[in-house]
Give the backbone structure.
Amino acid sequence: MTGETPISIEVRLRSAGLRPTRQRVALGDLLFAKGDRHLTVEELHEEAVTAGVPVSLATVYNTLHQFTEAGMIRVLAVESAKTYFDTNVSDHHHFFVEGENEVLDIPISNLTIDNLPPPPEGMEIAHVDVVIRLRPKQQD
Amino acid sequence: MTGETPISIEVRLRSAGLRPTRQRVALGDLLFAKGDRHLTVEELHEEAVTAGVPVSLATVYNTLHQFTEAGMIRVLAVESAKTYFDTNVSDHHHFFVEGENEVLDIPISNLTIDNLPPPPEGMEIAHVDVVIRLRPKQQD
DNA sequence: CTGTGTGCAAACTCTTTGCATAAGT
DNA sequence: ACTTATGCAAAGAGTTTGCACACAG
C-alpha cells in the first residue's frame, strides 16, 4: 500500500457543515495536498489562480476563516502585518524570520515546555504557540 | 532605601542616540514608570493625551519603533491586527486572550523550554516567544 | 542658527462588508 | 426552487510617508 487514504476534502467540508463548492474544494486541496504549510491569504489566492481556479480574494478570506472555525487550520501568532494560517493543527512550533516575515516549521525536535502556568480563573488554554524569532547571524 | 535608582529616560534616550524631546520623554515615562506593560500605539497615544501631552499618533508610531530599535522595548508575536509593544525585553512570556485581544504577562512561573532546536545555517535566535492562547472555559 | 523631531493629512496595505449574481442540494 | 456561496467594489482599520513648522543643542 502507498499510505493512508486521506479523507476527501468534500467529506471534511460536509462534516464541518460547509458545502463543498468548487472554490472551497480547490482551496482545501491546495492547503492539504502538500503536507503542512503556512500561508497568507494572498499566497493561497495566487496559488489558486495559477492552478486555474480564479477564486476571489474575498472568498479566500472567507474560506480560511471558515476552515479555522472548523478546526481544519489555525491562525499563527506571529508579529507580522499579515495573518498566517497553518494547516497543521497539532502542537508544534515555528521559526519566524525577521524582516522577511517568513514562517518555517521547526523540524523534528523534542522541544518541550515545562511548568506551564495555570490559566486565570474561568479561562482555559486554547493553544500554546512557541515562536523562535530568527535573524541573520552577525559576525562583528 | 526605596529601591534602585532608575536610569532617567533622558539618559537612556541619549545613549540610544535619540534627542530627549518632550514627546519622547513623556512617552518613555508612561512606558517605564508603571512596571512592565504591553501597549498598542493607540493605547499609549490616549494615555499621553490624557496625561496632558498632546503628542500625535504618528509620533507615537515613530517613537515606539525607535525605542524598539534601541532595544528598550520589543514587539510581541501575537495574532492580532494591532501591534503590541512590551516594555519588558527580557525572556518572559504571555497569555493572549482570544476575542478580546488582550495580552497578559505570565506571572511568576518557572516555565522552561527544553531542547530548543538549532537555528538554520547563518541564522541566530533573536528571541523566543511563548504565547499561551486563552479562551473562556466552556462547560458543556 | 542648524539639524532633528513633530504634526497633519494623504497614501498604503490588509481585511471586512454589502449586495447582486451564481452555484449547490 | 430554495438556500448558501461567490465576486466585486467600496469601506474600514492600522500603519506609513511627505513636507512644512517647531524645537533641542
